[in-house]
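To illustrate the input format used throughout this study, we show a single complete record. The first block contains the structure-token representation of the backbone; no residue identities are included at this stage. The design step must infer an amino acid for every position from geometry alone.
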């Protein structure tokens, strides 16, 4: 039987000498890695298996992502070799509430900045290695919004998305 996989996170950096990793949510999903979750890391490392189990996961505010430990990754060198790799989970294992937060969940949603006001609608999601970029078209033209913690303030299941853009993204 063929399994379908979903890209839910990207490994942003190694953290510590024991192989800990910082993973950032991808594809519009919320942070959802949890202990016991079976994942695949792509592209696979030549020295190890692509399949892992999440041994530990927590929200790490100081690192802008989730602090995770994967089975088989127990030193800094191996952790560093995984930076930039995607973390996938079987589609059937994605929590049902989180499934609605994929790319299709974002298309057409209205985006409002705290200081600037209405930016427009999300027309496209560009998937990046470290973070996704929302292409928002509206009164100010095309604005590229980094979908990162600290920028996305409120992401309700329906309605308007509230953001706080860093200075310099919109040249006003």
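Output of the design step:
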């Amino acid at each position: 039987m063929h399994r379908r996989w979903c890209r839910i996170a990207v490994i942003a950096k190694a953290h510590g000498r024991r192989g800990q990793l910082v993973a950032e949510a991808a594809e519009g999903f919320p942070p959802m890695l949890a202990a016991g979750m079976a994942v695949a890391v792509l592209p696979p490392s030549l020295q190890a298996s692509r399949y892992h189990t999440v041994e530990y996961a927590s929200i790490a505010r100081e690192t802008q992502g989730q602090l995770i430990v994967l089975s088989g990754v127990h030193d800094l060198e191996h952790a560093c070799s995984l930076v930039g790799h995607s973390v996938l989970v079987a589609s059937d294992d994605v929590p049902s509430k989180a499934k609605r937060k994929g790319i299709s969940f974002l298309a057409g949603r209205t985006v409002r900045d705290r200081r600037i006001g209405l930016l427009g609608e999300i027309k496209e999601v560009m998937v990046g290695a470290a973070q996704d970029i929302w292409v928002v078209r509206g009164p100010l033209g095309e604005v590229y919004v980094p979908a990162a913690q600290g920028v996305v303030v409120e992401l309700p299941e329906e309605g308007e998305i509230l953001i706080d853009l860093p200075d310099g993204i919109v040249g006003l």
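Structural context for interpreting the output: The chain has two domains: 5-91, 103-163. The domain at 103-163 is CATH 2.30.30.240 (SH3 type barrels.).
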